[in-house]
Amino acid sequence: MTQKILILINDAPYGTEKAYNALRLAMQLGKGHAEVEVRVFLMADAANCAIANQTTPSGYYNIERMLKATIAKGAKVKICGGCADARGLKNIPLIDGTEISTMAELTSWVVDSDKVVTF
C-alpha cells in the first residue's frame, strides 16, 4: 500500500536551512522508501526554490540540484501560483518537473495525504 507524504516548504531556498532540510527528507524518502509517494508544495518565499539555473559557491548546497534529484526519484513538486506571481516568477524559467499550482490543488493534496510535514 502506498503511503502519501506531503512536504510543505515556506522559506526561501537560501538564508535558512528549512528548504535544504525539507529536500534532504524528500530525497531520503525517495531513496529508501519506494512505497512512499512524495509530494512537495512550495509556498511563500519557497516558490523561489523552483527557479532554474541556480549557481551556488563550490561546496555549498544547491536547491535546484536537490529538487531535480527529488523529482528524478518520482516526487511531484508544485508551486503556489499566487506566491509565484507575487514574486515575479510568471515568466522566469522554472526547474523541469515543477508545476505552477493552486490552493485548491494544495487542499486536495492535504486531504489525500497520509502525513503532512511543514518546513
**Radius of gyration over C-alpha positions, nearest whole angstrom:** 13 Å
Low-confidence stretches: none
Biggest beta sheet summary: 5 strands, parallel
How many separate structural domains?
1
Helix residue percentage: 25-40%
* Head-to-tail CA distance between termini: 26 Å
Estimated structural class: alpha/beta
Looking at the overall shape, the CATH architecture is: 3-Layer(aba) Sandwich
Tell me what portion of residues adopts beta-strand conformation.
15-25%
Give a quick rundown of the structure.
With 119 residues, the chain is of the alpha/beta class. The protein has helices at residues 18-32, 63-72, 81-86, 103-112; strands spanning 3-9, 36-42, 76-80, 98-101, 115-118. A 5-stranded parallel beta sheet has the order 4-3-2-1-5, sandwiched between helices.
